[in-house]
Amino acid sequence: MAERTLPTAEDARRTAAEAWIWGYPLLADYRNLYAQAVDPTDPGSAGGFGSFRHDIGPVAPDGADIAHSTAWLDLRAEPWVLSVPATDRYHVLAVHDLDTVHAGFVGSRATGREAGHHLVAGPGWTGPVPDGVSGVLHTATHLAGVLGRTHVAGPDDVPGLRAVQEGYRLRPLSAFTDTAAPHPAEEPVWPVWREEETGTVEFFTVLDFLLRFFPVLAADRDLRTRLAALGVDGGGEFEPAALSPELRAALEAGVADGRTRLAEATAGTTRPEGLGGTRAELGADPLRRAIGAHEDLYGLPEVEVWQRDPAADGPPDGARHAYTLRFAPGQLPPARFLWSASLYGLPGRRFTENAIGRSAIGDRTPGILYDDDGGLTVYVAHRRPADAKRAANWLPAPAGPFAVTLRLYGPDPSVLDGRWPLPRLTRDDGADG
């Protein structure tokens, strides 16, 4: 084998910076894969590859909750079959590649409410599609994840939710067709996940391991060639200790450059939009994918769920003001499946405790009262409004900064093209009674 020609320090630094941005989503994905599919002692373990973990979590009585189901697939030996039950309940099971880009979707919008079997096939698979399979989702990587989201309309709905989740099933293709299983793929030595290494040259050790599961795509060929010149080629033999001091320093500087670039790109971002989707939807911009992995890991495309923070009269603060979110007649959120307005405390964007346990309000919220003209007014305040109608439509705010996010599942085209007017969060200090 010919000896590899090493790049100059300047070229190595540039390649390292680009590769850190490009590889950031892979390591963000591996963080979860390791915890859920590799490490059986992790509290979030799904029990290995090919099994679902269903996280229901605390269900608020507001009817706006989405429960998650997580699974991981090793597609090296053969495809897997993802089966779903018939249900009128909103659900989506998104299959994503190792770099978090979506390979395809199964669910209410993409495949309908009927029961079905869907083949998930890895790179290069060209076998026959068996009878009874509704469609094929082709991944670009040999390892893939499945993240399901299923609607639950409050605590009383949990048994119905569980029944649907238990209908989500994964089987190797050979088990589905009742044929002999192929020889299993070799079990790799999985690198132990260490968060602190993502900001050091050890980043490339993990990346080198992951590249064995990621065939080179045309859009990445130049960068992958330059990475291979540094020894990061998917062979699993990259060793930072073997680098010359000059080359190691160049890679460390490149990592720092990449981290700075991502930090600058995400600075001041409150709710990034349009960062989740397929390769066709996202294009070939690695920075865009890195921002998506940093700000909204596994975010869905807007055709599935559209989300925005309504403009407000100044930074919303429950300690200082009350607010209204008014949907005019004929302008209720046009969503095919459901919509909700969720409130988060800042800066962490987390649900906050309140007297009625309501973290969101929407079309599934029991007891909300519509206006006489057919519109809807949501009252956002820290204190419970004295007026009965305002209390019925009360979305409790913390005594401090907060944000409201409006989500439409299955948005109408008028939402996607901007024709539907997003309501404003308007100051209304009479709302807190």
From TrEMBL:
Which Pfam families does the entry mention?
DUF1214 (PF06742), DUF1254 (PF06863)
Q: Domain DUF1254: where?
A: 64-172
* InterPro entries reported in the protein's UniProt record: DUF1214, DUF1214_C_sf, DUF1254, DUF1254_sf
Q: Where is the DUF1214 domain?
A: 312-412
Q: Which PANTHER family match?
A: BLL3101 PROTEIN
Name assigned to this protein: DUF1254 domain-containing protein
- Please name the source species: Streptomyces roseolus
